[in-house]
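Entry:
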Amino acid sequence: NSRITVKAQGVYNIQFSCQLENSDSQEHDAEIWLAKNGTNVTESSTIIGVPAKHGGVNGHTVAAWNFFEAMERNDYVELYWQAASTTVSMPHRAATTSPTRPSVPSIILTVNLVSI
């Protein structure tokens, strides 16, 4: 389920960051936007360039921004995305060793009520 449902009326700060990866030798664009109750939110979309693979290493970038959205009880939001190529993904990376590092999530999302 991709829906983030709120239980109280108010203004919410919806923040996210996502790890984008490109396995192609050319840069490709990705676009991320917000939808509320199944409808795209006006002027919420942003295009970000995902760097090309270089030296055998996939290109990476992080997209991160936030939205302030007035919501009613039981409204829901979803983040949507699309890329210009199937070589662009939002991968998850498992925890690693040498040195020990935590896992890398594909996306982190935080929703805070900021005003009633």
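The chain has no helices and nine strands.
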